[in-house]
């Protein structure tokens, strides 16, 4: 029978491995809690299944435990930050605290963050902002193996390049839009592969550019040593947004864009992120903003649900529902993913329970 892990137990196991890999107690706790939060929200692609890749990145030297964000430039309304290859869950929180403070002082802040290791679920950073009444926009690029094909292309040329927008709603849970610009996140392909599942048609192409439903093509090198690729969502529109994320999150932040051949042995994942924070109160539109935002959301929810749906939802609703369920039922980790986590623990002399 499948076993669901309590969130608290997962946090303990992951933090133990991270400490053994060199992290301080505080850093290990922050990263572990962030990964488990991703699982609780239903984003298993960004959850504890990332731990083996992090451990490998530490051994490679591409991930630097106990690093802190470095301020390159601070004009109040502009921040240029360097993540120094630290854990993105820690670097991202440090960066957001700086940006939120500046936006509260000045009404807005444009923050560029480069050279951070994998930031994880970007929605977490938007949640930090909306909790302070701020609007938050994030454009992210990925420096790692290119796994997404351009619209009209037949091989991977860039990463999943997430985009996220958080908007506070007075007295209500926020609007929280957080998505990869590929049709699905790369991590979901890892989960599907580990569970032995096929994926929906139109999601992938193989190493020869042919449509496929086999997630192995983007998880393991194929017979010719090449990988397949994910497709962009929304055809040319999603592709255009992905390019914008690369140019804003990579080029504008100074972190760099992807333009080199694939190296299947590299486990390091570096992110750049351009964040825009806005304080509606200092913009002078806060009262109208609250009224109109709630009126529009209420208007949406009042509509009749379509066939196959129980209600009209907004971005953030599915994650909140999943979290409520998993807090009670626990988090399912498939056996293969757990074996990989156990193996990662052994590399740093930590013994975790077998699946």
Structure description:
The chain is of the alpha+beta class and 355 residues long. It has a single domain (4-287, 316-322, 330-347), classed as Ribosomal Protein S8, Chain: A, domain 1, CATH 3.30.1370.60. It has eleven helices and twelve strands. The protein has helices at 7-20, 25-40, 51-60, 88-106, 123-130, 186-194, 236-252, 280-283, 286-301, 317-329, 335-347, and strands spanning 4-5, 70-74, 78-82, 108-117, 135-143, 163-169, 172-179, 204-205, 211-212, 229-230, 270-278, 331-332. Strands 2-3-4-11-5-6-7 form a seven-stranded mixed sheet, sandwiched between helices. A three-stranded antiparallel sheet has the order 9-8-10, with no helix packed on it. Strand 6 and strand 7 (172-179) form a beta hairpin. Helix 3 runs parallel beside helix 11. The longest helix has 19 residues, at 88-106. The radius of gyration is 20 Å and the shape is globular. It starts with a strand and ends in an 8-residue tail after the last helix. The mean pLDDT is 95.
Please give a quick description of this structure.
This protein has 355 residues and is α+β, with helices and mostly antiparallel strands. It has a single domain, classed as 2-Layer Sandwich (Ribosomal Protein S8, Chain: A, domain 1), CATH 3.30.1370.60.
Count of discrete structural domains: 1
In the sheet with the most strands, the strands line up as: 2-3-4-11-5-6-7
Distance between the termini: 11 Å
Overall CATH architecture: 2-Layer Sandwich
